[in-house]
Amino acid sequence: MEHEDRQEPEKVMTREEFIDILPELSKDYKIPAEAKERIGHIDLLMMVGGTGVGKTSIIKRLGIPFVVTDTTRPIRPSEINGLDYFFRTDYEQLASEIKERKFVQVIVYPTGDFYGTRISAYPEVGYAVFAVVSSIVPEFRQMGFNDTTTAFITPPSFLDWMGRLDKSGLERNQLEKRLAEAHRSYEFALKDSETSFILNDELDHAVQQTKMLLGGRHDTEREARGRKAAEEIFEKLSFA
């Protein structure tokens, strides 16, 4: 009896394989002309800060369009795919989309994961908001948005922040990477003259302070407290 030809199952790209090729895929990535035209009508609010400081909670309360980002990082228990992020596992397709310049920008996070926003994720005009890593803030300021505002979110103390991180469920190696990124974020914010500090000691107050910032007003007392908290947390991170 003749053996039937058996086709080998198609090899599917793994997350690890994608992360290996991502630096080369993202190297010298250029914003598409269509995207440049669209973002020229948008005022962008960039939310910066470490994991667990409350960026997403504040964003959800602002009432302005949230730019949903595509990412390859694992979904967390409290997150909803398509609402918080588009959690991508179709790595072959994602690699093709990067090559075809389907994204406004392509970011390689310190963990090695991909983050990128599609052109269609942005509103046609007005305000838009999303969380960004500090290292790409200067790049976003030069991308061609109508205006950019940078808000650094900080908890009131290192102890408070550690309590929040304990609930995040991060594995040890991921936690170490997040702490290293937070150290870079605090260092950036404390040196950057264009960054405003949002103190997230109580969510309602942090949201109100952020809304004031969008309106061109500053709560100087809360900003001063936020900067002081940031300085203390940065010092703790520096000796961790």
Provide an overview of this structure:
- By secondary structure, the protein is α/β, with parallel strands linked by helices.
- The chain is 42% helix and 18% strand.
- The protein is built from nine helices and eight strands.
- It has helices at 15-26, 33-39, 55-62, 91-99, 137-141, 158-166, 172-191, 203-214, 220-238, and strands at 42-48, 69-71, 85-87, 103-108, 114-118, 126-131, 147-154, 195-199.
- It has a four-stranded parallel β-sheet with strand order 6-1-7-8, with helices on both faces. The protein has a four-stranded mixed β-sheet with strand order 3-2-5-4, with helices on one face.
- A hairpin with a 5-residue loop joins β4 and β5.
- α3 (55-62) crosses α8.
- It starts with 14 loop residues before the first helix and ends with a helix.
In the predicted model, the low-confidence regions spanning at least 5 consecutive residues are: none
The biggest beta sheet is recorded as: 4 strands, parallel
Work out the helix count: 9
The average pLDDT is 92
Category by helix and strand content: alpha/beta
Order of helices and strands: HHEHEEHEEEHEHHEHH
Strand order of the largest sheet: 6-1-7-8
Relative strand content: 15-25%
Seen as an oligomer or otherwise, the chain set is single chain
From the alpha carbons, calculate the radius of gyration and give it in angstroms.
20 Å
Helicity, as a percent range:
40-55%
How many strand segments?
Answer: 8
Termini separation: 69 Å
- Coarse morphology: globular
